[in-house]
Structure formats: structure tokens, C-alpha cells
Q: What sequence folds into this?
DNA sequence: TCTCAATGAATGAACATTCATTCATATCAT
DNA sequence: ATGATATGAATGAATGTTCATTCATTGAGA
């Protein structure tokens, strides 16, 4: 006899995990990771405190899972978009746009990424070692391709340039969440890439 | 009858405050702000736990004072150095050098600045609102001068450009502390300013 | 009836902060 | 000069609170 693909009863809900992660995003952004109680997260998700531990190992695991989920999404979205673009400069424009669009779309997520995730060296080292490295790698490879194609200067190490671009975008995001946010974060993308590509110095030929 | 201007006995030591702040830098860098106990800081400073509270209001106050002391130093040093340099591009080079030199000189201080100080939005907002704003202002003004002098493009808002440069430097510092630090952080300064001034795009005239 | 997701009260460890006490030194009285 | 007293920096044990995590119990479906 065929059994239903999805349980009809409340059950170990397919999406309770996501529900909890969403609640955690809101609560961590509001109260900060250390200021937030696990019970707050549970309450926001409409469940009991103990239930959180049926889906996550610990409070730390909440934060790590949040990061993983978002980075996985971002990297996939980035790869998809980038496949349709071949010009290296345009690729960088897309990367910058996607980066700032994602954070600008959800302020709470941005707060968690720009502030709460940077709690301790141990923690940051762990993040940097994995998904963040992949993300930086995408930028670096794009730059290296541009150099190979002769449209970017070859005398700038691509990893170095990638860090610069990432740093600039990161700072835009941080400034945005600390400001009153009367502007669209995504609108910063173009300017960042423009300066990154051409610099601020006046061209001599002008 | 004249009384001594300074007590001869051990008294409220002129530098016990500094001593405690130095200890806090080391301990916060090692254990993280939340992982560190006030008693650890006291022990490292060679005093009793309670003594910390004769010099600081709270644990938070330790972190804030640490930030203030360093930023005050940095801004003063920056103003002094910059007075001797008039070319805007050279000024940016000096700013970048001083920035990375200061952090590269003391890894623990760098950890506190790049990681531990970014604990919560409330906290960061407080920092950004004061000394950090002044610091960004120095960069912005230098850029604006360069534009007025015609050596920098005028179609990049100076505040925007300042954020980019700061973000790039900030990322270099963060990467450095997360790496094995087999290189000198200060050596990144030149490259950052180079790209900031001229961009990565190949010059058409070449 | 049986299973197991969900509950939420109870637990116990962690830790910032307090404060009664100590003691080295200064000041005063004689 | 000497002893008596005052000062206040420093101490560190004790306090009280704040949670993360656990687990005995519940009850809704199958």
C-alpha cells in the first residue's frame, strides 16, 4: 500500500528546520546572538524551547546552519547567473549586484551576516575556511580570467584584488545596516565595481 | 601648608588603567570577549578581580575604553603624519600604511578590532557614531581635496570612495589575522592604494 | 494500542558584580 | 621622634541571576 510522501500529522515537519532558522535570523538580529535566548527563538517560531534541540545540536549550531544555508543559496545563485555572462567586468558587476541585493533584501539577515557572525576568531576561522573561501574563489577566478583575457592588469594578484572587492562590498553592507537605510543597498554595487575597475585617479589622457 | 601634588604611596597607580587595558587586549584576543572572564583579565594584569571595578565601570567599559584609547592614538598619529604630506595620493598611501602598520604591529589588538569589537549592532552603532566616523572623515576629506585639485575623478562621491578604501583595508586586516600570518600586513597597503587609485582594468592607451 | 514529535518545568553551571575586610602609608598630636 | 589614627587602594569570597540544555510526560495520529 502506498504511503503518503508527506506525513499528514504535525510530525517532524519538513520545514520546521527552516521555520526555526527564520525565527533565529529575526531574534539574533534584534537582540544579538549572545543577548538572544534559545527560548526567544523558539517562541518566535511558535514552538517550545525544547523543540529547538530536536532540530539543532546547540545554539551555536543555529548560527552555523544559518550561515550555511545562506551561503549555499548565494553560491548557487551566483554560479547560475555567472554562467550567462562572459565578460569579466560584467561578471564582477553581477557578483556585486547579487551580493548587495541579497543582503539589502533582508535587513535581519544582513545584520546577522555583518555583525553577529563575527563573534570570535575560532568561529570566524571556521567560516572563512569553508564557504567564504569558496565565495572569494569565485571572485578571484573571475579576476584571473579577466587577466588572462587581457582586459585586467596582470600585475595585481587576483586573490589580493578579490579581497579588496569583497572588503569594499562588505563595508557597504555594514554601513547600510548601521545607517537609517533610506537608500537601496543594491545601488552601491555599480559604484563599487566602477572604482574597482577604473580607480579614482584622474586619467592622464583627459 | 602645601600638600604634595602626588601621593608617595602606591596609591591610585598612574598606569594601572593602562595595565588593565593591556591585559584585556591579550585576554579578549585569546578567549573572545564573551569567553573571557573579568577575573581572567585581572589575573593577567596581576591584580584581584574586584580591582578592575575601581578603574572601569563594567566589562563592556573595558572594551569601549580599549577602542577609544587606540582610535585616539591612531587619529592623532594620522593627523601628525598627514600634515607633512600634501599630495592627496601620497596622503592615502600614508593612511593605508599607518592603518595596517598599527594592526600588524600587535596581533592581539588586531583581533580585538577586527573581531571582538563587532559584537552587536548596538555596540557597533555606538562606535561608528563617534571615533570611526572621525576616522572615515579623514579619508573622505583627503579624497575631496584630491578631487578639488583635479587629481582625482570628481564623479565619485568622496564618502563612498572613503568607505571603499576603508573596507578594503579592513578586509586585508581580517584576512591577516585569520591566516597564519607569514607575511607583513603593512605590505598590503601599497597594493590596496594602487588599485584604489588606478583600478584593475587595463588602460586603453596601452 | 503504540509511536514519537512536542512540550516546558527543572537543573545546574557559569560569571559579572558587590562589599566587608585588610593593610600599607600618610598625617597628626604630643 | 613616636605612637595613634585616618585613608583608601586592593582583595577575593559570596551573591544572585541568567540561561542553555535535559528529560519525564503528554497527546495526536496511525
A:
Amino acid at each position: 500500500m502506498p504511503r503518503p510522501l508527506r506525513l499528514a500529522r504535525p510530525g517532524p515537519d519538513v520545514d520546521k528546520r527552516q521555520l526555526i532558522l527564520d525565527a533565529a535570523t529575526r531574534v539574533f538580529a534584534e537582540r544579538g546572538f549572545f543577548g538572544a535566548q534559545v527560548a526567544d527563538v523558539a517562541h518566535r517560531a511558535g514552538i517550545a524551547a525544547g523543540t529547538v534541540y530536536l532540530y539543532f545540536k546547540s545554539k551555536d549550531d543555529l548560527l552555523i546552519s544559518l550561515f550555511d544555508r545562506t551561503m549555499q543559496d548565494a553560491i548557487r545563485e551566483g554560479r547560475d547567473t555567472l554562467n550567462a555572462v562572459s565578460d569579466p567586468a560584467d561578471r564582477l558587476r553581477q557578483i556585486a549586484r547579487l551580493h548587495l541585493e541579497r543582503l539589502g533584501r533582508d535587513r535581519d539577515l544582513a545584520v546577522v551576516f555583518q555583525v553577529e557572525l563575527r563573534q570570535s576568531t575560532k568561529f570566524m576561522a571556521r567560516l572563512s575556511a569553508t564557504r567564504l573561501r569558496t565565495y572569494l574563489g569565485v571572485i578571484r577566478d573571475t579576476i584571473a580570467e579577466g587577466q588572462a583575457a587581457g582586459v585586467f592588469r596582470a600585475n595585481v594578484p587576483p586573490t589580493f584584488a578579490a579581497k579588496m572587492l569583497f572588503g569594499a562590498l562588505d563595508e557597504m553592507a555594514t554601513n547600510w545596516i548601521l545607517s537609517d537605510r533610506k537608500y537601496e543597498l543594491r545601488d552601491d554595487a555599480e559604484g563599487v565595481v566602477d572604482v574597482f575597475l577604473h580607480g579614482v585617479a584622474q586619467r592622464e589622457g583627459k
About this structure: Chain A touches chain B through 53 residues (CB under 8 Å). Residues 9-13, 39, 47-51, 54 of chain A lie near DNA strand C (CB under 10 Å from a C1'). Residues 1-13 of chain A have pLDDT under 50 and may be disordered.
